[in-house]
């Protein structure tokens, strides 16, 4: 008999520029492993945006929503316990991308997280690592999508370098290919553009390689798998099963590229293993791979059948505490990324960690009394607390607003776009004005996240006041709530019994107004010296 407590079924949907993919897996919680039940793919060409406005077209959004409804129906029929979804470059870059996600939520009932290119790259790495043993050898992973190409340098311990470049098979076909077969001039322009776009990430990747290291190249996703399919038909007469681990040479890819360049669409479509939609964009896709391999000076590439969708599964398992051995380092990816950004912007970590300690103490003690947020919101508060002062890197004046910008665009890993927006806003409102609807970045958020920001930034204000002199004057806080009179008593313990903590108490009186207004309470603070034990 199946132990349902130790198993769950998860569906992961990737809304890409070219296609929508879904994978459904059974997760064995005891083994921290998953088995693929089924996959689904639909080519919707979301990246075919309006050439004048750059917006997602009504037709493309309609195709995508119809596809997502089919995905949801299939997930329901398969008794999926959880369904997660992400959107990538096409949605990320379109001015009406958020409106599209709102439509999905309203019409289909799927909450979609918009992820950055760097986060997409990290999850691709996790997907590859879930099926390949790197054996202490560095690996370069290349994933060619419709709108972007992710190139990653990683080993079995961590991703050393993550990049996302705006060259994709659909994007390049739209921008550079208008002749069929392609003209010599267009082909030359296409190759030169790809080389120029890939030059910087590949140079930066090389700097992360240690002396005498020879990396292995891994290719993932549709374009590269199509190339491998055509290569296998030509050299083996069939597609190997499994496809995982199939290898191609750079020379073999160059031969395919030259063949595509000499053919028109109908001739490419006639090739065994070629789909109608892929035949339109395969020349641009093969250009990216060939140029990347040439610049990397690598002669071979091995195919990996797992990528972003499977990485989403691994990421879900990490965030739900189901992996604690092989990928243990990844379970702390958010915390490590926050600390990395804090160091980048020269944050005083001793002070920030003290603020975070106070903020989390208030959060924990008031949970179930004044708020009802959980572990996810607690982590957002911690992240905002660590980074709330990072704006000082730019200027002291209006540094809370600078903090918002740096957090929002700081390439934090492990977070969805809505998480980054929430963290940035919590940090932004640790001082000065409280959140207001006239503030554009705050007002455009869903109601739930505006409430999170209002309540958690009010807590952060108190925490900041408690370390006003930045000398560790306050040791700990005890909260006592009088529900009858709606009074919150803060009993503060001073580290030094001779310190009256006058500046902290004064600042607390000033900062508490926003907290009192938000929670509808009267806050009363009293000071005790460390020699006086608290009543437990």
TrEMBL record:
Does the entry feature the keyword Hydrolase, yes or no?
Answer: yes
Q: CDD domains of this UniProt entry?
A: ASKHA_NBD_PPX_GppA
Asked if Hydrolase is a keyword of the record, the answer is: yes
Matching entries from Pfam families are given as:
Ppx-GppA, Ppx-GppA_III
Recorded GO molecular functions are:
pyrophosphatase activity
Identify the domain of life: Bacteria
Domain Ppx/GppA phosphatase N-terminal positions: 23-320
Kindly give the InterPro entries that the UniProt entry links to this protein: ATPase_NBD, GppA/Ppx_hydrolase, Ppx_GppA_C, Ppx_GppA_N, PyroPPase_GppA_Ppx
Q: Which residues form the Ppx/GppA phosphatase C-terminal domain?
A: 333-511
Instruction: Report keywords, A-Z.
Output: Hydrolase
Family to which the UniProt record says this protein belongs? Belongs to the GppA/Ppx family.
Question: What is the protein named?
Answer: Ppx/GppA phosphatase
What is the originating organism of this protein? Answer: Aphanothece sacrum FPU1
């Amino acid at each position: 008999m199946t132990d349902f407590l130790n198993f769950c079924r998860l569906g992961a949907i990737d809304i890409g520029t070219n296609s929508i993919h879904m994978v459904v897996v059974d997760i064995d919680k005891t083994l921290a492993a998953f088995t693929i039940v089924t996959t689904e793919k639909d080519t919707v060409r979301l990246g075919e945006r309006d050439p004048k406005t750059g917006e997602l077209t009504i037709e493309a959004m309609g195709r995508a929503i119809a596809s997502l409804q089919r995905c949801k129906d299939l997930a329901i029929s398969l008794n999926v316990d959880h369904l997660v979804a992400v959107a990538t470059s096409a949605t990320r870059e379109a001015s009406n991308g958020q409106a599209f996600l709102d439509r999905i939520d309203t019409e289909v009932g799927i909450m979609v997280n918009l992820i950055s290119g760097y986060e997409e790259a990290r999850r691709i790495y996790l997907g590859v690592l879930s099926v390949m043993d790197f054996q202490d050898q560095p690996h370069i992973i290349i994933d060619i999508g419709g709108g972007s190409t992710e190139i990653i340098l990683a080993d079995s311990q961590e991703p050393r370098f993550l990049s996302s470049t705006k060259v994709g098979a659909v994007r390049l076909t739209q921008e550079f290919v208008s002749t069929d077969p392609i003209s010599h001039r267009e082909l030359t322009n296409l190759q030169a553009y790809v080389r120029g776009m890939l030059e910087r990430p590949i140079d930066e990747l090389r700097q992360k390689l240690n002396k005498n290291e020879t990396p292995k190249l891994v290719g993932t996703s549709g374009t590269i798998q199509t190339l491998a399919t055509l290569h296998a038909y030509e050299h083996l007469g069939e597609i190997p099963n499994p496809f995982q681990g199939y290898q191609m040479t750079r020379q073999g890819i160059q031969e395919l590229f030259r063949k595509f360049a000499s053919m028109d669409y109908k001739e490419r479509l006639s090739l065994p293993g070629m789909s109608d939609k892929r035949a339109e964009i395969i020349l641009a896709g093969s250009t990216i791979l060939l140029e990347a391999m040439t610049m990397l000076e690598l002669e071979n590439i091995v195919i990996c059948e797992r990528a972003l969708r499977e990485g989403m599964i691994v990421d879900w398992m990490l965030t739900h505490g189901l992996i604690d051995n092989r990928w243990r380092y990844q379970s702390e990816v958010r915390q490590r990324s926050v600390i990395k950004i804090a160091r980048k912007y020269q944050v005083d970590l001793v002070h920030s960690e003290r603020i975070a300690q106070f903020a989390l103490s208030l959060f924990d003690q008031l949970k179930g009394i004044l708020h009802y947020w959980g572990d996810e919101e607690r982590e957002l508060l911690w992240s905002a607390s660590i980074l709330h002062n990072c704006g000082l890197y730019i200027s002291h004046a209006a540094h809370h607003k600078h903090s918002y910008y740096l957090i929002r665009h700081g390439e934090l890993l492990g977070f969805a776009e809505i998480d980054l927006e929430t963290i940035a806003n919590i940090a932004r409102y640790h001082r000065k004005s409280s959140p207001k609807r006239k503030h554009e970045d705050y007002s455009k958020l869903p109601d739930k996240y505006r409430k999170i920001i209002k309540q958690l930034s009010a807590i952060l204000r108190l925490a900041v006041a408690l370390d006003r002199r930045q000398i560790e004057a306050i040791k700990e806080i005890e909260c006592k709530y009088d529900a009858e009179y709606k009074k919150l008593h803060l009993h503060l313990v001073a580290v030094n019994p001779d310190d009256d903590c006058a500046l902290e108490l004064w600042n607390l009186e000033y900062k508490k107004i926003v907290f009192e207004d938000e929670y509808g309470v009267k806050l009363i603070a009293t000071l005790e010296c460390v020699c006086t034990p608290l009543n437990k």
